User: Fold this.
Amino acid sequence: MVYSLTYRRPRHVPSKRGSIASEKTGQSIGGATLNDSQNAAINYGIPEALSFDRIIDGGTCPPCTTRDFMNYLIYIEHAAENLQFFLWYQDYTKRFDQLSENERKLATVWTAEQAEAQILAMKDSPAPMKTSSAETAALFKGTDFAPPKATVVEMGRGNPFNTPPMTPENAERDSLAPSEYPWSDSGSTLRSGFKASHDKKSAGAFDAADIKLQPFTVQPFREEISRIIATYIADGAPRQLNLSSKERAALLHALAITTHPSAFRQVIRTVEWTLRHQAHQNFIRWTICNGNRPRVIFARGLGIAGIVGGIVAAILIVLSNAGRGWRVFSAIGFMIGIATLIAAWKGMCVVLHGMHHRHLRPWELFAEDDDASSVMEMKKGSFDSFGTSNSYEDQPWIAKYDKRNLIRKVFDREVWIQEPALRQIQDTIFLQALLGSVILTAICVGIFVALPRGRFY
Assistant:
């Protein structure tokens, strides 16, 4: 079964930054609502079986799983922080809704009217003064150029309602993904050293935004919000989201007042739109390619060679005394060459497609050779909501793949494509390549058949 012959694979969406979605219209950037993404998916060349929600919910098979999506964002698009933040927010919302009513009342809803009023206030007010570094302050200390002392936000101190942190079961354990080790306001998943470091970064973010408010530490998940600020929101954070200074200041103002999930309303809409209408679309387009770049270039070369072979055969027959019927044999070269070239131009190798295989990605090739603990550490790190930066330059597979010669890259290890919807898309593209080849071959052979015989030999 294939899709329509007019099917077109998703177009590549360039990475660009837009403004925050309008709350009044309920629309995301670009005018499309987030709720109608499934209806719009097929218009982008993405069937419902490979929709964004289906992938996030775990309803797809390799190579279209959430893990594959995360790897694509890390190694190809270099924007994994959006998906990491989105997954954390989903989990955080569920855990917040499971709190008792009394706990939820401590964190009031951040309404759309409050958010818009804050944005308007940010537009009317001048930009906050940038804080100087410690070196600059020490250099100008005692002079007329000494920077003014900034008010540092104190978090988590002096509140009689705070619960003393419990001792972790394993003091050496880092925080894992929220879905596996839920956060609690008792701080049981925080190590004291990391807690102090993130509190300091969070306080610095409030100070840089010129926010003098005292966050309400009695609110649920206040320590977790502090760590989210230090990981995703603060300037220079290891997984800093692509936010403007005004967006960052508006979010910090909301988080200083409440830990309710609605405080992230504006930011999460921008992040979700980016994932749905840019990253997801590019991911499906990239996944359709069943071969690595050297293999696809090799396939294009074979296609061009087949076309050239068909042209040479047709010319030789035309110049000979052979009858016109012999010229039809040049169609073999044209047919194979054009079909291979069309498929390769869309990132597919027809040989791999014949077996419904794909090449293993470079980071998948050496997974079996690497130490099991290091592989688990990499897998855990990308889905750890509070992990380090998404840099991968020091991962062992990079040096190993660079040493791999070109021939081995062209004929790399293969694996069967498990996702049925992806196989259907590739079947459709292959059928389109065959039909296009038949039409173009008929035209080319017809031109050579119409020429008179040369009778040179």
Q: What stands out?
A: The longest helix spans residues 420-450. The beta strands are 357-359, 414-416. Confidence is low (pLDDT under 50) at residues 18-33, 128-133, 150-191. The two ends are 50 Å apart (CA to CA).
